[in-house]
Design brief:
It is found in: Nucleus. With 156 residues, the chain is an alpha+beta fold. The protein has helices spanning 4-22, 29-70, 98-109, 140-155, and strands spanning 76-82, 85-92, 111-119, 124-132. β1 (76-82) and β2 form a beta hairpin.
Length: 156
């Protein structure tokens, strides 16, 4: 015959392993199981977040590869109002001195560049945060038109 202690030992070992795995500080069996369920839910949420991030990165990669394959980079200018300034995003073919033309357009409009990121490996891409010296005289439409004119002027 098997004693009561011998029957309980495997269950207690499993409970101890479960407690160690999820970092539970509880002693009660029900609390350890609830902590384990909570731990599993957190892992599921982390996995879903990583899957979403992976899909986003794949979409960006596919778009980039498609643009590189066709060598057709659309001219894209997006301007958003952010507080007292503007967030300007530009993507286009690399032709001439695009950055200089855009910065000259900003200067003509009275926009100061606070922060900018520029890439021109295979195409020209820029993201800039600008602040207007005279906030009343500038709006999103004016900034967009000025950037498009600068790109046309430089691109021919």
């Amino acid at each position: 015959m098997v004693t009561k202690l011998q029957r309980r030992t495997p269950g207690l070992r499993k409970l101890h392993l479960l407690r160690a795995r999820n970092g539970s500080k509880s002693v009660k069996r029900s609390s350890i199981i609830l902590d384990a369920l909570l731990y599993i839910q957190k892992l599921k949420l982390k996995l879903q977040e990583l899957q979403r991030e992976h899909l986003n990165l794949l979409a960006i990669k596919n778009k980039y590869l498609c643009l590189m394959k066709h060598d057709q980079i659309p001219k894209e200018v997006k301007v958003e109002k952010t507080g007292e300034g503007f967030l300007v995003r530009v993507i286009c073919k690399k032709e001439g001195h695009m950055l200089v033309s855009i910065l000259e357009a900003f200067d003509e409009m009275g926009l100061n560049v606070v922060q900018a990121r520029v890439s021109c490996n295979n195409f020209f891409a820029m993201e800039a945060i600008t602040v207007a010296q005279d906030p009343q005289g500038t709006d999103v439409k004016n900034v967009t038109q000025a950037v498009l004119k600068a790109l046309e002027r430089e691109g021919g």
